[in-house]
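[User] I wish I could look at a protein chain and see how it folds. I have put the entry right below:
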Amino acid sequence: MALSRRLRVSVKAPRDPGFGALRRAARAAIVIPLAFAFADLLLRESQILIFVVFGCFSLLVISDFGGFRRPRALAYLTATVVGAVLVALGTFASSSLWLAVTSMLVVGFVISFSRVFGGYVAAANLGMILAFVIAVTIPAPVADIPLRVGGWAIAGLVSTVAAVTLWPRFERVTMHHQTAQALLAIADLVQGIGSGAGQGDVQSLEDRASQAVLVARRGFAALAKRPTASARRDRAFAQLLIELDRILEIIERPFNEDRPTVRPGLAETDQLVAAVVAALRASGAVLTGGAQPDVQAIDAARVQHRAALDRWAAEQIRTHRPLEEVLDGLGFDDTLRVVSYLAFVLGGNAVIASGARPNVSDTAMNFARTIQAHLESPSTVLQGSLRVAIGLAVAVLVARAFDLSHAFWVVLGTIQVLRSNALGTGRSIVQAVVGNAIGVIIGGLFAVVAGNHPAVMWAAFPIAVFGAAYAATTVGFMASQAAFTINLIVVFNLISPAGWQVGLVRIEDLLVGALISLVVGVLLWPRGARREFARAVASVYRSLVPYLEHALDRVLGFEPPSAPDPTRQLVLRARDRADAAYDTFTTERGGASFDQETAVFLLASPSHMKLSGDLLNLIAGVMGYSASSCADGAREVREQVRILLAEYSHLADRLSLSKADGPESRVSAAALRQAALGCLGSSQTNPDTGRGAIAVVMASEWVQDLERLEGDLEDAVNAAVDAARKPWWR
């Protein structure tokens, strides 16, 4: 009884949110045997048979596109067309050893690199590589191209029909509903704060909003490995969730939390609150099919609020109210104003995530920027693509040069175990070998028992397909390798009875491919994503330093507001590379020595810094604020800006593992406050300096906010640096 209880406690069902893996496995178990039977019994053409089977497996199991029926069907049909081109190209190249190797190098790089576009393109990555690998490693004359392409086309059409009709899971509906609930909870929180609700009520609203945002984030994380829409929509949705987190964080830690609260009591404040609340609620509604949010109303309300706040400050100064109280009153609504900026950006992302048509020029510009960003160093995408391309090319060379039977298994083995770092590759090799050995034993015993009874093999076929498809994403890599090997033994015994010996060939070819992966993994960037992620994030922080410097200098009056600033494009490119490095980091097997939450914080913080720079440029360039009329205060704030930017430069140096001394001093909140008070005092005797004083006040507040963020980053940077310094074999 005790043993029975222990077993019940220790054995857990595989994690399968929404039974997505079960649906996929059941779909494959029905479709692949039927497609195989159609090609084998009716068409009786081995070239078609191979591409029907592996085409269905590539599309239904490996790619497995999600989303609503129409975009899902379009994704499958597009992958069918692209795969057909790759099959034709691979068949043409298969006639020559060096043409096969060269084409594998080029095609492997292009397909692997294409994952930077995310969404369905990333989901199709491995499936498209498999289409080319099968064609290029099984030599055939050009005359066989129509047969092979026909087999792939059959697989694509069958997979498309099956994907949209057999138990489709519309996880985006659930995800959008959860996020809409989070937006409503945030809207209620903003409304509660704006209406002056009591501390207990505000705390209750904060707790409810935090829980709703957490549910939305978990829902998105559960399907992050299975794109359900285009890259543009997926990225907009991910950014929306980051903005939700940031709104919640700013509300929980307001700018004026350490200062006495002097509430100006402006009607324009209530109007701004109403505009923000309406936009947040409409952003939730658009995700579930409602009308688009009116983000322009936020912009108009914010301009009116700024003007009213300036008038309030001028009136208080004119009536000789203590400057300390005036400064506190100016800062009281800062939290609301930052939330309004975030709500404005969030509304745009909600519209994109809901499926709004993209602007063609913007899409082309983003496409070009993405390619440019990842062709620069450091880029984990560039490194990973080169690693994959070289590994596959070497595998094709070895398999074809030594005339290994089932040469595509060598190449398949290479890509199955090749990871982003040498340690992960080594671990995957061990798991793959053990898993395949288990699969050979089980599949071999079955082949011996089944003997020459095709009916038994046919009966086992759907079960083997189900096991391979289900284990691929739920049980683990070792178990999936065992299940895949059993499936291969059954398939190849149905094509050409070979008994259990086909399993030995599978292990031999896998070992060759694994050895190639190990050599490539050790020679090409063996440290993997943990170091490259730290360096990529360092590059973002380093690019943000000049961007923030220019933005603050514009507000402080040291640069004209209309001066061109190319540094923002550098920030965007560095951020693109960091996003890709994060994607690699989260999927890296082994060697990730700090948790994902820390990585998310390191990656999300630059978004707030960029937003700060954007808003400062808006303050100077659009709203016309400049501290040039209060030169003394501007110089004092600028000195603190230099200290702040030195702190961020030091963080970047540490993340890139450069030896650098720490900053000699820290930002002084007292010095910033004195600079603001001095400028406000000057405006008592010279009203013309009023807007200059407000510019100093706003610049001081943003410097303090960025200083607080820098302090929060210390522990996360320490964790990333410790992980990056570890040797690749640890």
Q: What stands out?
A: The domain at 527-725 is CATH 1.20.58 (Methane Monooxygenase Hydroxylase; Chain G, domain 1). Residues 690-725 form the longest helix (36 residues). The chain is about 80% helix and 0% strand. Residues 96 and 245 are 55 Å apart (CA to CA).
